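Researcher: Please predict.
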Amino acid sequence: MNRPVTINIPEGFSRWDAADYLTTEEDMQLFLDACAEEDPGDGSLIRKALGDIARARSMTQLSRDTGITREGLYKALSDEGNPEFSTIIKVVIALGLNLTIPAKRATA
C-alpha cells in the first residue's frame, strides 16, 4: 500500500512552484518548449507545464476561455490527470501558446 510522503518544510521556506516564475509570455512559451523537448513520451511534462502556466496566468480565466470548469482543468492538468487531446488543444489555444513536439532520435 502506497502512503503519501510527508515533507516538513523548515519555517521561512516554501515549496518551489514554477508558476511563481512564469511572469512573461516568453517565459511561458520557453518553459512549454523545454518540457515538450524533455517529455519522456507520455505527455506528463507537457501536462505539468500547462498546469503551471495555467496557474501562473489565471485558472479562472482559462476556465472561461476553454469552457472547461476550473475543477476539470485542475484535475486534467494534475499529476494524476489524463486529459483528452482536445482538452490539451483548447488549453494551448486559450493560453496563446504554440505546442511543438520534437521528434526523438533513436540512440545507438
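Model: The chain has five helices and no strands.
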